[in-house]
Amino acid sequence: MDDFDVDLMVLGAGSGGVRAARMAAQRGARVAVAESGPTGGTCVNVGCIPKKLYGHAAHYAEAFEESAGYGWQLGAARLDWGVLKQRRAAELRRLNGVYERLLAEAGVELLRGRARLLGPQQVEVQPDDATAPPRRLRARHVLVATGSRPQRPPIDGAELGVVSDEMFDLPVFPRRLAVVGGGYIACEMASIFHGLGAEVTQLVRGDALLRGFDADIGRVLAAQMQARGVAIRFQAQPVALRRHDGALALQLEDGQAVAADTVLWATGRVPNSADLGLAEAGVALGDDGAVIADPRGATRVPSVHAVGDVTGGPQLTPVALAQAMVLVDRLFGDGGRRFDPALLPTAVFTHPPVGSIGLSEAQAAARHGALRIYETDFKPLKHTLSDSVERCRMKLVVDDASDRVLGLHMVGPDAGEVVQGYAVALGMGATKAQFDATLGIHPTVSEEFVTMRTLSRRVG
């Protein structure tokens, strides 16, 4: 017998930590998880799930308006912000219970408290109950899966604004909302709260939305959000936030100011790696605090591993889940499992939503040279009667030499659902000829990806 208390000690009960703990326990490992907050991490509590629920709520307002084009006559609709918050909170409590039950059924011990390393194979857990003594465990392996947190910009008065974690439970629904940022969280929150009834101004430091996505996607999304009524101001740099006449005044570098009831800082996230004893245990950290780990979750300390947002990679739940599976297979399996982030399907739940997988046009041109681009832009059938301004934009990026589809991008209804299916095809190396040979389901939006025959342009 060894002198370890557990085979795997997991710091954090978010998506990556819970998945790793469960899978390791099912392979016979002795596993414990330390968590000081609600189980499920960012995704369940202040990320993916509440965001999608509030997105559904916002879509009802659009549906009420659009229904008139189909002959429905409805009275004035009014959002009860308190009811929405209560219903969301109840659902999240249910999901917290699901996560706890999954851990218990797998035989994982859940320790309520904050953990930190005392050495490469020793962890101390300070219970949430301040009267209880700390617990120390010797672990054969330690997994850091503590996620990330939103950050405020370093400007005067930044504390007067809120971050995304706080948006779902604001005491009062904001009549005027200023959103600072151009990434997916900023765009989603701007879309959702505009749909719920707020007057939204989005301030973007650069000249485009969704940096890192295909450039056409950001351009089309901006046009669609503006057509719906979101005011987007590019090249806008906040320098201070102050209270003025009972509201907030966001001062900009050009001397102008934006009045708002709530200001949301959607200006990035940083890894939760502070005060965990990582550096003292020999674990290397990046300048932003990210745990430096290889694609299989290994750090430079053989007994310490890391997955998910804390490693500074793509801040997406499916990435953390995939990394967790690779790690468990390496530690407690045959080590053959791999995760390739090159074909990462992504959805942005804006109004309208975005779906994307593979390379952008610019990335593909840099890596492959000659390309063929296929595009289509149309009004979805639903909106031919609804009088909505929404349009759908779809794009295929094809390698001219091999005919392989390198990138697939969409702004339009159910984009995430559509792209999830095509992710299988791109993962298998599908060619444009194979897309062309596939029968479409008519009438659907997704059929457009297999009926685009006319070349839009060549690149390279």
TrEMBL record:
PROSITE patterns according to UniProt? PYRIDINE_REDOX_1
Q: Does the keyword Transcription apply?
A: no
InterPro entries documented for this protein: FAD/NAD-bd_sf, FAD/NAD-binding_dom, FAD/NAD-linked_Rdtase_dimer_sf, GSHR/TRXR-like, Pyr_nuc-diS_OxRdtase, Pyr_nucl-diS_OxRdtase_dimer, Pyr_OxRdtase_I_AS
- Output the SUPFAM superfamilies linked to this UniProt entry: FAD/NAD(P)-binding domain (SSF51905), FAD/NAD-linked reductases, dimerisation (C-terminal) domain (SSF55424)
Q: Which residues form the Pyridine nucleotide-disulphide oxidoreductase dimerisation domain?
A: 345-452
Which residues of this UniProt protein bind NAD(+)? G181, G182, G183, Y184, I185, A186, C187, E188, G268
GO MF entries? flavin adenine dinucleotide binding; glutathione-disulfide reductase (NADPH) activity
- Pfam families (alphabetical): Pyr_redox_2 (PF07992), Pyr_redox_dim (PF02852)
Task: Using the record's annotation, list all stretches that form the FAD/NAD(P)-binding domain.
Answer: 7-324
Give disulfide pairs as residue numbers: C43-C48
Q: Which cofactor does it need?
A: FAD
Residues that coordinate or bind FAD: K52, T146, G147, S148, D309
Keywords, A to Z? Answer: Disulfide bond, FAD, Flavoprotein, NAD, Nucleotide-binding, Oxidoreductase, Redox-active center
Listed under GO biological process in this entry are: cell redox homeostasis; cellular response to oxidative stress; glutathione metabolic process
Q: What class of enzyme is it?
A: oxidoreductase
Q: How is the cofactor bound?
A: Binds 1 FAD per subunit.
- A GO cellular-component term linked to this record: cytosol
Q: Which domain of life is it from?
A: Bacteria
Entry's EC annotation:
1.8.1.7
Where do the catalytic residues lie?
A: H442
Q: Which family does it belong to?
A: Belongs to the class-I pyridine nucleotide-disulfide oxidoreductase family.
Question: What protein name applies here?
Answer: Glutathione reductase
Originating organism: Piscinibacter sakaiensis (Ideonella sakaiensis)
